[in-house]
């Protein structure tokens, strides 16, 4: 018998690994849709007038093995020295148990933001641990679940202070000892809001002239100052006191709350989170209880479920920027959840005794280093310190810095005559000796007995981390089991489809994730000399070039470290360009009501007036209203912000008209890139008339969501806007920086770069086409049972569809919440609820889901429709039915059953797996109870028992 070769390509990443439906399954889906092939569907869906003329060419796609080999070659160009630069970034030890079980575990990094609390109990508990850690260390009553980085947290604290202060002053005081990147980002945020920044020594503070003040603790050059007197003066003037504090230092030093601070911010990076050339890292914010409702970001709170059991959920102003739009106080819609979880587990892993011991060791090492330099005649400042010293070397500065590099150590250049040194938990005796050699000294670490040189007035006397979770048995077996228990309480992408519209929960391939942990990417300080980061430069340059080809823009900046930051950076870029051309009076931003939810808040943050534009009955921009508003504000129109395809899931055919009208009246066009997963390879925003767009690399380009962050939101612009990009945080530019690090969170970029290299232009285009196929398949299968709210002119949706649940509230009292919770019983995360239209579900399956998973979801939705019909027709009790009691727990299954439907119907509906069923750990969470009884730190176990009674 003759041999018959196969044409199967086992290493074809795009078609065999990333894209879910097989060619055979696609053919079956075409039959359901009534189309011949994918080309026919795209022709019906994407208007011919917006399609790009040429195919996307990005070079030959690589296999996973080829990509990893290439990534290794590029990574080897980074030189990983020991960086003692400090400035808010520190070497740290990630406990291997945390690296393997959290950082590299898809159960944690593929989870979505915990808006559905019943299936997020594990990561909510982990984030509550983090909040408790922050609250304890800072001595303030309430903390949020993380912010983007320390510099933006400082800026958020500044604007929060302005909101809550009783002072009528318009100036804000900034301690000159703050890290320079923190000062730079605060200046950027302050300028469009009309806040005057006063940078000076704390001794020069005139409290009556400011609404608030921020101090670095310890200072950027190592000084430790008791700020009690400054806080007292600020309070006497009805102003707000803020401390940017190093949490490791707080293990030994007096906490901000004890000094009278109202707000504390900082970075938890040194709690086990790699440097990563600047990010991602979890910033923290804590405040007094009186200001909790004004704090930006997410807050995890404790509540109860419908049976009185303990349950966690997001509390208070969750997604405030979506609800309040241009009246929002912040555009923050994300956090650094995965990194906060790591930092929280670092505290659980070590406990208070371990953290204090680590802090003591860091300080003792610094004291020995300082003593050796002083004995050699060098002037070391300050006299007392925690981990940072500054050495006056006069004209020897460059020689010392170069000698240190030859010893494998980076030190900090301070002014023209000084050198800064910051030690950390990774510092070894050999490192200290290498620093001494750089200064010309030949000493041994063992020459010096351990001593302490902490400022006596600032030594901490209060306890911290007293909750039981920080005192658990820290045997690795127990730690591993605790992490596993929490992970098992969640529903992440490693278990099931997460069909969230606008959020693109697609495959995060293991091969893309692997380089993030490599020391060549993880071990670099963001301010190392450029010749030590040539691998990063090659990657960033090539990724930027490829994103330009994808989008039609001329240049990209990677600095924004979230989608909302990208919006803000893009609008600042436009505002800077308008000012340079003498059009600084332009301050009106047209935003259609179908735009992304953070857009109005971002416009408000750059000092613009938001003018809403209506939509027509099809959910598209009302062109007549848009033209009228543009004409009305022609002299002051700065920009318009549109989302394409729209948040309603439709390719609008008037997008070129909208862009042309905006340009005609002197404005610039911001095209939100949240829905780029429907465009890559088919249409380029830069060709449609866009001047700037941000891309959510954590959506379209495969960086995972991590339970609510990390993210990246780089912006692409047309050539005329390039000079107005955000500046380097330590360098002057036309526009100021928006993030603490020059490239935002660059250790995430290997994920997107690897994805693009393995997909190639043809693979990326096919991914877009299949994302549209999968969305239309779901819309077609659900049509008739549910109304698909918006479609294009040929009845097709883009990459997502909105189904209307509102009629059921009128017909039988079934709400969108009931449907969402019932989907949990079926083993699914609910689609996006009530956004952009209240009472609806927005579904986005992505290209990564197989036909089997799509069918499982559709079967579940159709079965839920039949359960709704039973209530409508009187066959099921309006208040005692599977939808109203959803989700059902294993406890429901085994307790006494007194419901009119069977245990099987309640617990094993269509779609649910029989063997590997996901059981939610709690019943429906009572959000109102949680807000009435707000608890945002880990309460004692006795409180839970009382709540259950």
From TrEMBL:
What InterPro entries does this protein map onto? GcvP, GDC-P_C, GDC-P_N, GDC_P, PyrdxlP-dep_Trfase, PyrdxlP-dep_Trfase_major, PyrdxlP-dep_Trfase_small
Organism (species)? Alloyangia pacifica
What HAMAP family does UniProt report for this protein, alphabetically?
GcvP (MF_00711)
Q: What does this protein do?
A: The glycine cleavage system catalyzes the degradation of glycine. The P protein binds the alpha-amino group of glycine through its pyridoxal phosphate cofactor; CO(2) is released and the remaining methylamine moiety is then transferred to the lipoamide cofactor of the H protein.
Instruction: Write out the entry's keywords from A to Z.
Output: Oxidoreductase, Pyridoxal phosphate
Q: How does it assemble?
A: The glycine cleavage system is composed of four proteins: P, T, L and H.
Taxonomy, top ranks, is: Bacteria, Pseudomonadati, Pseudomonadota, Alphaproteobacteria, Rhodobacterales
**What EC class does the entry list?**
oxidoreductase
Cofactor field:
pyridoxal 5'-phosphate
Record has Transmembrane helix as a keyword: no
Q: Which ranges carry the Glycine dehydrogenase C-terminal domain?
A: 767-888
Which BP terms from GO are recorded? glycine decarboxylation via glycine cleavage system
Glycine cleavage system P-protein N-terminal domain location: 16-439, 474-726
- Pfam families in UniProt: GcvP2_C (PF21478), GDC-P (PF02347)
- Which superkingdom heads the taxonomic lineage of this protein's source? Bacteria
Could you tell me what this protein is called? Glycine dehydrogenase (decarboxylating)
Cellular compartments per GO CC: cytosol; glycine cleavage complex
């Amino acid at each position: 018998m003759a041999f018959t070769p196969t044409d199967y390509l086992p290493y074809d990443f795009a078609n065999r690994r990333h894209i879910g439906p097989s060619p055979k399954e696609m053919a079956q889906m075409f039959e359901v849709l009534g189309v011949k092939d994918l080309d026919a569907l795209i022709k019906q869906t994407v208007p011919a007038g917006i399609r790009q003329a040429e195919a996307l060419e990005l070079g030959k796609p690589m296999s996973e093995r080829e990509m990893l080999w290439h990534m290794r070659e590029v990574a080897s160009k980074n030189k990983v020295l020991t960086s003692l630069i400090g400035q808010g970034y520190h070497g740290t030890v990630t406990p291997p148990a945390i690296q393997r079980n959290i950082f590299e575990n898809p159960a944690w990094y593929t989870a979505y933001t915990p808006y559905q609390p019943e299936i997020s109990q594990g990561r909510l508990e982990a984030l509550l641990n983090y909040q408790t850690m922050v609250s304890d260390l800072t001595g303030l009553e309430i903390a949020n679940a993380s912010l983007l980085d320390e510099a933006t947290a400082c800026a958020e604290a500044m604007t929060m202070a302005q909101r809550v202060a009783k002072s009528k002053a318009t100036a804000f005081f900034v301690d000159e000892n703050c890290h320079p990147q923190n000062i730079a980002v605060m200046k950027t945020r302050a300028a469009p809001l009309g806040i005057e920044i006063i940078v000076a020594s704390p001794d020069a503070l005139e409290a009556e002239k400011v609404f608030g003040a921020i101090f670095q603790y310890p200072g950027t050059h190592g000084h430790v100052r008791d700020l009690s007197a400054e806080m007292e003066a600020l309070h006497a003037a009805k102003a707000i006191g803020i401390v940017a504090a190093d949490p490791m230092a707080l293990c030994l030093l007096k906490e901000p709350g004890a000094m009278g601070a109202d707000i504390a911010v900082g970075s938890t990076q040194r709690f086990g989170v790699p440097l990563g050339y600047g990010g991602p890292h979890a910033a923290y914010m804590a405040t007094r209880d009186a200001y909790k409702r004004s704090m930006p970001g997410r807050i995890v709170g404790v509540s109860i479920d419908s049976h009185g059991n303990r349950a966690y959920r997001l509390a208070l102003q969750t997604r405030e920027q979506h609800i309040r739009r241009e009246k929002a106080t912040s555009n923050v819609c994300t956090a650094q959840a995965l990194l906060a979880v790591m930092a929280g587990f670092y505290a659980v892993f070590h406990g208070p005794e371990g953290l204090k011991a680590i802090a003591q060791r860091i300080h003792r090492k610094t004291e020995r280093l300082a003593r050796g330099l002083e004995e050699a005649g060098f002037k070391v400042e300050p006299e007392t310190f925690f981990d940072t010293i500054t050495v006056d070397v006069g004209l020897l500065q460059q020689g010392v810095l170069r000698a240190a590099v030859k010893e494998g150590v980076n030190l900090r250049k301070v002014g023209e005559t000084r050198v800064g040194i910051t030690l950390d938990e990774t510092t070894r005796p050999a490192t200290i000796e290498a620093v001494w050699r750089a200064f010309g000294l030949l000493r041994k670490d063992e020459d010096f007995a351990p001593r302490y040189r902490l400022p006596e007035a600032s030594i901490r006397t209060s306890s911290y981390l007293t909750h039981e979770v920080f005192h658990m048995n820290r045997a690795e077996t127990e730690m591993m089991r605790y992490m596993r228990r929490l992970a098992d309480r969640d529903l992440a992408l490693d278990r099931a489809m997460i069909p969230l519209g606008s959020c693109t929960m697609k495959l995060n391939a293991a091969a893309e994730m692997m380089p993030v942990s490599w020391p060549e990417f993880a071990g670099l300080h963001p301010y190392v000399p450029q010749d030590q980061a040539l691998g990063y430069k090659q990657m960033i340059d090539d990724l930027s070039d490829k994103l330009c080809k994808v989008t039609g823009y001329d240049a990209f900046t990677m600095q924004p470290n979230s989608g909302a930051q990208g919006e803000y950076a893009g609008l600042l870029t436009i505002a800077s360009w308008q000012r340079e051309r003498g059009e600084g009076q332009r301050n009106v931003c047209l935003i259609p009501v179908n735009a992304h939810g953070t857009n109005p808040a971002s416009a408000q943050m750059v000092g613009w007036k938001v003018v809403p534009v209506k939509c027509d009955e099809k959910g598209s921009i009302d062109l007549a209203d848009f033209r009228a508003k543009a004409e009305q504000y022609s002299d002051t129109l700065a920009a318009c912000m549109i989302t394409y395809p729209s948040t309603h899931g439709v390719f609008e055919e008037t997008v070129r008209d909208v862009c042309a009208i905006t340009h005609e009246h002197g404005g610039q066009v911001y095209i939100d890139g949240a829905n780029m997963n429907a465009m890559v390879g088919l249409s380029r925003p830069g060709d449609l008339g866009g001047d700037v767009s941000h891309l959510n690399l954590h959506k379209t380009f495969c960086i995972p969501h991590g339970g609510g962050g990390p993210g990246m939101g780089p912006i692409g612009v047309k050539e005329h806007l390039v000079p107005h990009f955000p500046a380097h945080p330590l360098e002057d530019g036309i526009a100021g920086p928006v993030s603490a690090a020059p490239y935002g969170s660059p250790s995430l970029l290997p994920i997107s770069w690897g994805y693009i290299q393995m997909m190639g232009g043809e693979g990326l285009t096919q991914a877009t086409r299949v994302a549209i196929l999968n969305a239309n398949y779901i819309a077609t299968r659900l049509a008739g049972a549910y109304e698909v709210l918006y479609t294009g002119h040929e009845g097709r949706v883009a990459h997502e569809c909105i189904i209307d649940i509102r009629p059921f509230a009128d017909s039988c009292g079934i709400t969108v919440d009931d449907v969402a919770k019932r989907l949990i019983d079926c083993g699914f995360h609910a689609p996006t609820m009530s956004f952009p239209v209240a009472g609806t579900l927005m579904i986005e399956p992505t290209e990564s889901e197989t036909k089997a998973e799509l069918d499982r979801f559709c079967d579940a939705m159709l079965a839920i429709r039949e359960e709704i019909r039973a209530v409508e027709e009187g066959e099921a009790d309006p208040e005692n039915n599977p939808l109203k009691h959803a989700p059902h727990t294993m406890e429901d299954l085994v307790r006494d059953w007194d419901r009119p439907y069977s245990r099987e119907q309640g617990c094993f509906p269509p779609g649910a797996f029989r063997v590997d069923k996901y059981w939610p750990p709690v019943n429906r969470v009572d959000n109102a109870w949680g807000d009435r009884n707000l608890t945002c730190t880990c309460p004692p176990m006795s409180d839970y028992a009382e709540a259950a009674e």
